[in-house]
Design brief:
Largest sheet of chain A: 8 strands, parallel, barrel
Shape of chain A: globular
Strand content of chain A: 5-15%
Helix content of chain A: 40-55%
Distance between the termini of chain A: 22 Å
Radius of gyration of chain A: 18 Å
Protein name (chains A, B): Hydroxymethylglutaryl-CoA lyase
InterPro entries (chains A, B): Aldolase_TIM, HMGL, PYR_CT
CATH topology of chain A: TIM Barrel
Pfam families (chains A, B): HMGL-like
Family (chains A, B): Belongs to the HMG-CoA lyase family.
Keywords (chains A, B): Lyase, Metal-binding
Mean pLDDT of chain A: 94
Low-confidence stretches of chain A: none
CATH class of chain A: Alpha Beta
CATH architecture of chain A: Alpha-Beta Barrel
Order of helices and strands of chain A: EHHEHEHEHHEHEHEHEHHHH
Oligomer: homodimer
Number of helices of chain A: 13
Chain lengths: ~300, ~300
């Protein structure tokens, strides 16, 4: 994390994983690849391209290895995959990903519903995966994203101490970074500032991404609050696709287009070309006909005379 | 303006004026009154209830005096009306409003399109109206809202110096407060912080409301940015109704429901009961059948275990 407003932000696009995982229809592999190509063409430098889970559980992710292989053809980007367990991590590492991300929920109820393990059992899973990574692909980064860090539809309030302790445990277990996720859209800017400040105090440079949802309209305000606290990596989803199938009421990742527009308008560099980013909606919509796609900046268009700093 | 986070915020509901002025259909007077009653029942303490303009120009506002008289039955609220000129101000003062608000645009192109006067001519109108007010109703407050303060669809960029100078001129001409309006949804949080900081440096306690639009999704982030700078009055519209009929591409006032939810979730008092505020959507929708009504917090519902501080 960096408190300098000059530091560019890294937009970590989660649509091809988080987004697709939440829609009923399955996107064809070729469509996923076209979408990823369009994201890279727009300047997106980190993409969560797949989830390594049993195909019986999530048929949308059956082509995970193939999608990773396609994404790896692009140079200069970080290809990331979600892995809920050791088997998934092994497959993802075999496929050649640059970064693994693990969902570690601070709410026991959500953790059990999502991965059938308690938070503490997930920390042990982080440790096992970190060891596996060290043994076979030591250059690969491991991220532990703390889910339901701002509240849970099943459990209600989640204690801030639990969230910070869990993030610290993940780092101690071998994760390189740990960020905070508002899985169900409960976060508010005051809470976001408080928790990211505590996170940085606790784990310093290991503090990772803000993963915000727009369920109650506060997505961008929460991202701004996190940015104020020095967060420089933000998860978001093109067209606002996504949510969590195992957290009732979780809907709407922050829209990448609006988030990038906010930062670029503020003069904060993202490395992403907005017009090309808007154009990346076409392959998404072509691959998921009938699926609602959100985003106010692409609908309203850029302001008159708007010029991105380069 | 106040930098203390303990100071409650004042939500100035502009739907019955700004909102209705932008829709094609005309709401019946009885429906407007029911809507205003529901807003007051929810705890809204300032309402822009009408615009005093020639009925031929805006037939939706032909019942302005009647609506003002109805609103005045409620005690403890500030009944506000928009007045573009002396004649309007005279009629509004006769009707008994507590507060006049004048649109003074920083963009000459928008000012001419909106009120057929240059910004400088509008400052003279402010002066004339302040004198009129002093003569016949000295207790009435006069607000000058600087329109297109963050950019203009007609002119493009609006110089920040022009905005601040114009606000200062309005105060010098006799306005009690001057706020900044993002009439067309061009503002970003960095700009909002910069301009409100300059505004306060220039006119001190006379610095007024933030009037933000959600055209490109940044409405709440911009309100948060203004709040950080000490702004404690926010214009918004129930259901996000509104825009400006004379500024092409201006759509979507900030949604009152989502704005109040943001502040209340942060622990910032608004004096408004969220459940009752959500209930105030019913008379709005009944009075404007078929009109789109926005708001993510009312659609998603309040978080589990959410309790408003009282």
């Amino acid at each position: 994390m960096s408190l300098s407003p000059e530091t560019p932000v890294l937009i970590s696009e989660v649509g091809p994983r988080d987004g697709l995982q939440s829609v009923k229809s399955t996107m064809a592999t070729a469509d996923k690849c076209r979408w990823i190509d369009a994201l890279v063409a727009a300047g997106v430098r980190e993409i969560e391209v797949a989830s390594f889970v049993p195909p019986a559980l999530l048929p949308q992710m059956a082509d995970a290895a193939e999608v990773v292989r396609h994404a790896l053809r692009h140079s200069g980007i970080t290809v990331m995959a979600l892995v809920p367990n050791r088997r998934g991590a092994e497959n993802a590492l075999k496929a050649g990903v640059h970064k693994l991300t693990m969902p570690v929920s601070a709410s026991t109820a959500h953790s059990l519903a999502n991965v059938r393990k308690t938070p503490q059992q997930m920390v042990e899973e982080v440790r096992a995966i970190a060891q596996l990574r060290d043994a076979i692909a030591p250059g690969v980064k491991l991220e532990a994203g703390i889910s339901t860090a701002f509240g849970c539809t099943l459990q209600g309030e989640v204690a801030e101490d639990d969230v910070i302790r869990l993030a610290a445990s993940c780092i101690e277990a071998g994760a390189d970074e740990s960020g905070l996720s508002d899985t169900v859209g409960y976060a508010n800017p005051a809470q976001v500032r408080r928790l990211f400040r505590r996170l940085r105090a606790e784990i310093g440079v290991h503090a990772g991404a803000a993963h915000m949802h727009n369920t109650r309209g506060l997505g961008l305000a929460n991202c701004l609050a996190a940015w104020d606290e020095g967060v420089r990596t933000f998860d978001s989803s093109l067209g606002g696709l996504g949510g969590c199938p195992y957290a009732p009421g979780a809907s709407g990742n922050v829209v990448t287009e609006d988030l990038v527009f906010m930062f670029e308008a503020m003069g904060v560099r993202t490395g992403i070309d907005l017009e090309r980013l808007f154009a990346a909606r076409a392959p998404l919509m072509a691959g998921l006909p009938g699926e609602p796609v959100y985003g106010m900046a692409p609908e309203a268009g850029l302001p008159k005379g708007f010029a991105q700093a380069r």
